[in-house]
């Protein structure tokens, strides 16, 4: 967990402690009969005598009782006020953001008007007009605060509405009610909680201000009304302020600080990207050090480094119709640290078979010959248990069809938790933090962890698969057609994401695809495969400029437009 998240959690605990203190005060409130300052003579307030504090003088009540009673009023107005604000603001924000068009235009103009109205005169006019009471205070608080909530939620809903999964659900004939329930509301719900806490905070402040202005219920003792009476009876001018101004002031500060800390913590929890982004530079630095800084320190490029993966004379055959299919013929491959090697070839050329052979996933009757070494470790010699420990841990696969790779009956977080548990014992809290961090890395907010695969668009599922592949920080990744079935825009997003993460973590990777332009975007080196045979290989830029083999030339000619090739990793 990042330092920032630690800080947020610590502040959250302090905040909850402060709020618990005030709630305790509010709970014992009924036991304390408030001292009725109104009944006292209209003269200046005094500092209480010792007898007063001991409850032995004729007033018979003390400031403490008033403070305790005030906690009830302030909390009630704060919570009820915030509930009203959230209900009005959320209803208007969600409807405007979801339906858009003229409904949105109309509602947002109303929001604009509300936000430009001068707050203080409005409060005084309404308060005087409706007569001071708790109900009036709640009404003023709701009226003044809903517009901000509506505006923030509207923008969230607009971004959720445009997500691929919502579009897909709509294209499958899902009703507005279904989309709202399954896609939109689950997306905004985590944001409502921190907003509510902040709302309570603001409402308590506003209640104090209203009461201080004399717009509070004259019969209900609140901290604000204590300040009102303190002001009205000159306590601010005498030493009595210490007793009549400081205690309610401190109570207000305690509850406001408590809500602010809890709100901050909840916001971090609802949006782990806030902390993930803060943590990102440290992570990058570490990856840079392991890969690029290390290389420049030695004055060597990565071609001089020991390969992460070495494949020598790989042959794969399948029995078919009494004969055999030679799916891979005499294939050689070297992948060095931090390198992406693209394997390109048309359908049936043997790409997936090579990936499966590297992952040791081919079973008889498939026949595999040759050697596959991960940092010198001969994978063919490992036992089934050793291989199990290796897969998903030191080497990971990003499979072709993300839709089939995810378990439809488990939510994303459960699947990611299982992937971690398979390889390393981790406390649930730590594992969950790792999951949130990885989801944020692939551009998904933490609440998607609770989603089931069918709730995710193809691109989102592929992001989840990428996050799962990275969970245990593998040294090597086989990305087998990781963009199949995705539209062109999402394909580019996924490739950029893979490239960023690969650079960030310094992982070696093979990127398998039939899509030559896509491979050229990401790969440092490429291998052109035809009929199970590597017909040509070389640095991407070289191969593009000077293709030797007729098949490579044919493939290049078939590409209408090619984007700039990725610079080799060695030039960094
Ligand atoms: N389990 C199997 N049994 C028999 N033949 C197989 C098997 N798996 C693959 N092959 C054959 O091996 C050859 C290479 O298949 P492979 O799936 O590796 O190609 P590919 O380049 O990945 O194709 P695509 O891009 O369509 O996935 C094909 O001729 C295929 O028919």
Automatic annotation (TrEMBL):
Keywords: ATP-binding, Cell inner membrane, Cell membrane, Membrane, Nucleotide-binding, Translocase, Transmembrane, Transmembrane helix, Transport
CDD domains: ABC_NikE_OppD_transporters, TM_PBP2
Cellular compartment(s): Cell membrane; Membrane
SMART domains linked: AAA
UniProt entry tagged with the keyword ATP-binding: yes
Sequence similarity: Belongs to the binding-protein-dependent transport system permease family.
Name listed for the protein in its UniProt record: Dipeptide/oligopeptide/nickel ABC transporter permease/ATP-binding protein
């Amino acid at each position: 967990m990042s330092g920032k998240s630690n800080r947020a959690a610590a502040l959250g605990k302090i905040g909850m402690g402060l709020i618990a203190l005030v709630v305790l005060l509010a709970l014992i409130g009924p036991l304390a009969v408030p001292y009725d300052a109104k009944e006292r003579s209209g003269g200046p307030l005094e500092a209480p005598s010792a007898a007063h504090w001991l409850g032995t003088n004729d007033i018979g009540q003390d400031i403490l009782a008033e403070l305790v009673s005030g906690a009830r009023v302030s909390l009630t107005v704060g919570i009820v006020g915030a509930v009203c604000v959230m209900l009005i603001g959320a209803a208007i924000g969600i409807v405007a953001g979801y339906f858009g068009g003229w409904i949105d235009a109309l509602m947002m103009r109303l929001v604009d008007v509300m936000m430009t109205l001068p707050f203080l005169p409005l409060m005084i006019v309404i308060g005087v007009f409706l007569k001071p009471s708790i109900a009036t205070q709640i009404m003023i608080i709701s009226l003044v605060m809903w517009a901000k909530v509506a505006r923030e939620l509207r923008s969230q809903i607009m971004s959720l509405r445009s997500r691929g999964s919502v579009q897909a659900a709509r294209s499958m004939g899902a009703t507005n009610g279904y989309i709202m329930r399954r896609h939109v509301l689950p997306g905004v719900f985590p944001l409502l909680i921190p907003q509510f806490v902040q709302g309570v905070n603001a409402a308590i402040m506003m209640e104090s201000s209203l009461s201080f202005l004399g717009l509070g219920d004259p019969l209900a003792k609140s901290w604000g009304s204590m300040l009102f009476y303190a002001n009205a009876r000159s306590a601010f001018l005498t030493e009595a302020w210490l007793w009549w101004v400081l205690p309610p002031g401190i109570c207000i500060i305690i509850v406001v600080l408590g809500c602010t800390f809890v709100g901050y913590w909840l916001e971090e929890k609802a949006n782990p990207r806030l902390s993930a982004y803060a943590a990102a530079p440290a992570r990058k630095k570490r990856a840079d050090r392991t890969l690029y800084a290390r290389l420049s320190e030695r004055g060597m490029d990565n071609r001089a480094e020991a390969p992460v993966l070495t494949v020598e004379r790989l042959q794969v055959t399948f029995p078919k119709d009494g004969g055999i299919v030679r799916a891979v013929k005499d294939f050689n491959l070297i992948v060095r640290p931090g390198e992406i090697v693209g394997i390109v070839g048309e359908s049936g050329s043997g790409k997936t078979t090579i990936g499966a052979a590297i992952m040791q996933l081919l079973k008889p009757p498939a026949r595999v010959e040759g050697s596959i070494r991960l940092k010198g470790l001969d994978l063919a010699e490992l036992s089934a248990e050793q291989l199990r420990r290796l897969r998903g841990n030191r080497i990971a696969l990003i499979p072709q069809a993300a839709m089939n790779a995810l378990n439809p009956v488990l939510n994303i977080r459960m699947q990611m938790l299982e992937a971690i548990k398979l390889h390393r014992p981790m406390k649930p809290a730590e594992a969950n933090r790792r999951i949130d961090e990885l989801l944020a890395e692939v551009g998904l907010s933490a609440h998607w962890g609770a989603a089931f695969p069918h709730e995710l668009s193809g691109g989102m599922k592929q992001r989840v698969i990428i996050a799962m592949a990275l969970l245990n920080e593998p040294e090597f990744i086989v990305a087998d057609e990781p963009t199949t079935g995705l539209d062109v825009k999402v394909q580019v997003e996924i490739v950029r994401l893979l490239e960023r993460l690969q650079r960030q973590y310094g992982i070696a990777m093979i990127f398998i695809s039939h899509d030559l332009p896509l491979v050229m975007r990401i790969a440092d080196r490429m291998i052109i495969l035809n009929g199970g045979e590597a017909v040509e290989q070389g640095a991407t830029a070289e191969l593009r400029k000077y293709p030797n083999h007729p098949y490579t030339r044919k493939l290049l000619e078939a590409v209408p437009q090619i984007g700039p090739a990725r610079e080799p990793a060695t030039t960094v």
